[in-house]
Write a structure and sequence with these properties.
The structure is a homodimer of 187-residue chains. The first copy, chain A, has 187 residues and is mainly α. In chain A, 71% of the residues lie in helices and 0% in strands. Chain A has one domain: Tetracycline Repressor, domain 2, CATH 1.10.357. In chain A, α1 crosses α2. Chains A and B meet through α6, α7, α8 and α9 of A and α6, α7, α8 and α9 of B. The first copy, chain A, binds a DNA duplex (18 and 18 nucleotides) through α3.
Chain lengths: 187, 187
DNA sequence: GTCTATAATTAGATAGAC
DNA sequence: GTCTATCTAATTATAGAC
């Protein structure tokens, strides 16, 4: 693996664990086993490297979510597969976590991939729920877009509660609760 | 207002907006209009001041949540009052947001009030939902503790989605969605 | 209690040698 | 491409005068 690649992957890890404000160029260099000069040769600075890492994290998140949401089966099975997919719960969401970072929110460039990824996820969840309504799996009064936002919020909030508690249990329970509420809507 | 009080309140504001890692002693001093010496006279350092500010934010959060949850009416009305209480949505949750901060999570002392406050909220939501089940407002198969975690997660996740989008809409929609799911459980 | 001086460390980067 | 030297500002304090 070349240096630029090691730098990006190290930044992905550190952004995920410590956020943008909590990640220094020095920490990135040490994690990537690259020198100062090397880092500044490949990237103009911290924010440019962070942008590459955030985009990469966004790509990976989309691929993993899409894998669950495009599996064969009913709409409920797809949502369930998404909710129960393997996650490093205590690390939090690699994209959603950045929404708490003041420097990310202050930069239109760094914020864009965060916004776009969550918008994409919302659209995918909405499409799957709409498919469920069309097939008579859910009642016609279930609004796909609204419910998609709720499901996405349960996942993001589940991460927050789990990290605060230092335990995966709140995430698991939050997901279980929303699934039960959704199941009771099934015809 | 005396200096110690101004320092605590300034730290409350800054922790809420920028987190612990993103808040420097200098920024606190400027916001509080206090000098270096003054700050270090009243508090041993950043973390001691942050602890006081986090505890204060936790108290305020509890008071505001309790105000909604103890209003007269049905369980559903209490939950609804909690969900729709006035919030500075784009600022995020003053307690939940800290669960994303690496230095908060790494310190048992700073983390404790975060954990405790969310645990308290969970217990209060659970009690109100249990009351709703007892009174026949919700079906007996609704598990209060699980549903309380889901509701709490929707709120925390709603904040995350709203901040990422730069709009209050996702929060409002996430709350609306969980309320509709909950209403459909009503007898 | 508050102020100013001082300081060790890190953050974030530039310049130029190799 | 990578390394080392250098640099300015910020971070997080401590010391001692007033």
């Amino acid at each position: 693996m070349d240096t630029a690649e090691r730098l990006i992957r190290s930044t992905q890890e550190l952004l995920w664990e410590r956020g943008y404000v909590g990640t220094s160029p020095k920490a990135i260099q040490q994690h990537a086993q690259a020198g100062q000069g090397s880092m500044y040769h490949h990237f103009a600075g911290k924010s440019e490297l962070a942008l590459a890492a955030i985009r990469r994290n966004a790509e990976e998140l989309r691929a993993e979510a899409e894998s669950a949401l495009s599996r064969p089966g009913t709409a409920h099975e797809k949502i369930s597969a998404y909710l129960h997919r393997e996650r490093a719960i205590l690390r939090g969401c690699r994209i959603g976590g950045l929404a708490q970072d003041p420097d990310i929110l202050a930069s239109a460039e760094l914020r864009q991939p965060v916004t776009e990824t969550l918008d994409w996820l919302h659209a995918r969840l909405t499409a799957v729920l709409a498919e469920g309504v069309t097939h008579g799996e859910f009642p016609a009064d279930l609004d796909p877009a609204t419910t998609a936002t709720t499901i996405s919020a349960v996942v993001q909030g589940g991460y927050v509660l789990a990290r605060a508690a230092g335990s995966e249990a709140p995430f698991t329970q939050a997901v279980e609760g929303v699934e039960k509420l959704l199941l009771s809507k099934q015809l």
